[in-house]
Amino acid sequence: MLSNLKQNFSHLFEDDLIAEINQVGNLIHVTEGDKLIEIGDYLRSMPLLISGAIKILREDSEGDELLLYFLEPGDTCAMTLTCCLGQKKSEIRALAELDTTLVMIPVQKMEEWMGRFKSWRNFVLASYHTRLMEMLDTIDSIAFLNMDERLVKYLRDKKNIAKTDVIASTHQEIAYELHTSRVVVSRLLKKLESMGKIALNRNSIKIIEL
Amino acid sequence: MLSNLKQNFSHLFEDDLIAEINQVGNLIHVTEGDKLIEIGDYLRSMPLLISGAIKILREDSEGDELLLYFLEPGDTCAMTLTCCLGQKKSEIRALAELDTTLVMIPVQKMEEWMGRFKSWRNFVLASYHTRLMEMLDTIDSIAFLNMDERLVKYLRDKKNIAKTDVIASTHQEIAYELHTSRVVVSRLLKKLESMGKIALNRNSIKIIEL
DNA sequence: GGCTGAATGTAACTTTTGTTACTGCTAAAA
DNA sequence: TTTTAGCAGTAACAAAAGTTACATTCAGCC
User: Fold this and answer.
1) Distance between alpha carbon A146 and the CA centroid of its chain, in Å?
2) Residues 6+ apart with CB under 8 A from B27
3) Is the CB of B82 under 7 A from strand D?
4) Which residues are paired to A93 by β-bridges?
5) Which bases of chain C are under 7 A from a protein CB atom?
6) What's the whole-model pTM score?
7) Residue A142 φ/ψ, nearest 5 degrees
8) Do A139 and B68 touch (CB under 8 A)?
9) Among candidate residues B29, B50, B46, B28, the one with its CA nearest the CA of residue B37
10) How far apart are CA B23 and CA A54, in angstroms?
11) What does the pLDDT profile of chain A (210 residues) look like in tens digits?
12) CA of B142 to nearest chain A CA: how many angstroms apart?
């Protein structure tokens, strides 16, 4: 575990802290599609992402979803931080977007480290910063962009996260994450295809140039 | 200033910290409509809200606005926190919604206090928590609600912030903050009036029952 | 090979939101 | 008092998004 940890976090944490994380952290692997957090869960540990990607989703009153953002290696879940510290229920759902490896840190430790390690404090604050910025970005998208532009952004994000030009999603799945309907997604995808920007196949979309 | 401080923050901070805030903090008053932060500003101090209210706005590429949320007494600006610590430009605009009193804390102090005062750490973390929750709420509104519901929510919020049933805004102002057009706002307000929920007057809206 | 269920394509229509254009009203300035 | 600028009301239309309904295609299974 140490080697993996260092790869993503050594530039952030001093060796002492890395060693402690190595001691108390719990290394876990999850597979694409696995659920990590459900809305309403109480959380007792926070994740440090070693590899893979996690998607964070919000749910409306009808049970429909909206993709908020992705977590990538080196990230932690800011929502979890605040939930742990405040003993609050989770307001979001977290699913593995890819096969993912993470280190789980017990709440007590993260509180203790806030006092002991300046680098930990900075990491936690920086995490909040990036998360607030991601949320702003999400707000920009849904408030300022039309669905066709949001779809293009979504495809770009997916491509960057999975590091591949072929996105393995159905139109229905995309519709869920953008909080719209399958018909709308099909319509707009077709338009993108006719513009030569993507190629459509059953269960997958190839990005040509976006 | 001490007395004001204690009123809003004494349950959060130990006396030592209150005393220090009293020493290094800079008490300022602003009038409704005053601009506190512009997009792109570098921030060198963080505000603690004593009285009044601040509205936080986001801007799109065309220069149009969107109301994100309000800050109330006892709050601080989470965006400012991250900007200060990360030496980043502000991503938001802050305007005085009401006549407002705040204490400005220099960046160096807030960093120092993070190490020295547990209560300060908790306050900063709790601030991030509430702000993330507010942002989630904003996302819920724009992603899941129709304009008529958003308008109702907006009017309720305004009423609660100003603690009055009469909202002194033009339709144009409301349209800016909801990122829609004046005609749409007029239309929906008229509908609310015909349902007996509000009463419309020039430059003001009286909330009857929402 | 034929069956089946999921995925996709598409037309037709509705609803919601945004836009344009013009009206009249009101408060404050001249 | 008259003028004027900003505010509000509303009709008519356009665009974006959501809905319904049905046809077609495809992969995997029997």
Assistant:
1) 23
2) B1, B50, B101, B102, B103, B104
3) no
4) A57
5) 6-12, 16-21, 26-27
6) 0.94
7) -75, -30
8) yes
9) B46
10) 45
11) 666 777 788 888 999 999 999 999 999 999 999 999 999 999 999 999 999 999 999 999 999 999 999 999 999 998 898 888 778 899 999 999 999 999 999 999 988 998 899 999 999 989 999 999 999 999 999 999 999 999 999 999 999 999 999 999 999 999 999 999 999 999 999 999 999 999 999 999 999 998
12) 6
Q: How many C-beta atoms lie closer than 10 Å to residue A199's C-beta? A: 14
How far CA A89 is from CA of A40, A41, A79, B123, B168, in Å, comes to 5, 5, 10, 19, 37
Q: Which residue of A has its CA nearest to B132?
A: A132
Chain A residue with CA closest to B133: the answer is A91
Question: Is residue A130 a contact partner of residue B79, using CB atoms and an 8 Å limit?
Answer: no
Q: Helix, strand, coil proportions of chain B in percent (round to 5)?
A: 50, 25, 25
Q: Report the CATH architecture of B2-143.
A: Sandwich (2.60)
* Phi, psi for residue B91 in degrees, rounded to 5: -100, 0
Do residues A21 and A76 make contact, with C-beta atoms less than 8 angstroms apart?
no
Q: What is the DSSP string of A175-192?
A: HHHHTS-HHHHHHHHHHH
Gap between the Cα atoms of B150 and B141, Å rounded: 6
- CATH 1.10.10.10 domain residues, chain A: 146-207
SS3 A205: strand
What are the pLDDT digits (tens) for A84-114? 877 889 999 999 999 999 999 999 998 899 8
Rg (CA), chain A: 18
Alpha-carbon gap, residue A186 to A194, rounded angstroms: 12
CATH number for domain B146-207, candidates 1.25.40.10, 3.40.50.150, 3.40.630.30, 1.10.10.10: 1.10.10.10
Hey, are the CB atoms on B60 and A140 less than 8 Å from each other?
yes
State how far Cα A174 lies from the chain centre: 16
CATH 2.60.120.10 residue ranges of chain A are 2-143
CB contact under 8 A, B78 and A132: yes
Pure H helices in B39-181: 78-86, 107-116, 118-144, 147-162, 171-178
Beta carbons of A210 and A198 less than 8 angstroms apart: yes
Identify which of A68, A86, A115 has the shortest CB distance to residue B118. Answer: A115
